[in-house]
Amino acid sequence: SRVSLSAQPPGGQVALGDSLVLSCAVAAGTGPVSFSWHREGSGTPLGTGPRLELSRVGDKDSGHYQCRASDGDSAAESPTLNVTVLGEWDRREC
């Protein structure tokens, strides 16, 4: 895919109550691009723009996230990123 998705912290594993930032990028050489963010294939975008910030994540924020990039003529989707929210129990086991 010409659309890439990255996460901070890497891998999409984030502790309960922390922040997660997802970033979307397209291959060089494309014109103006608009972005939208989706979870579990939902039709309603979670946000627009090249970055999606989830602050104070909770259990409900777990799931598969994807970025869709469109240049007006065509659209492409990033690979799916599985976001895992680690609770207090998970954190103790690390």
TrEMBL record:
Transmembrane parts of this sequence: none
Any Pfam family: Ig_3
Domain of life: Eukaryota
The name this protein goes by in its record: FCRL2 protein
Ig-like domain: residues covered: 1-84
Region (Disordered): 57-81
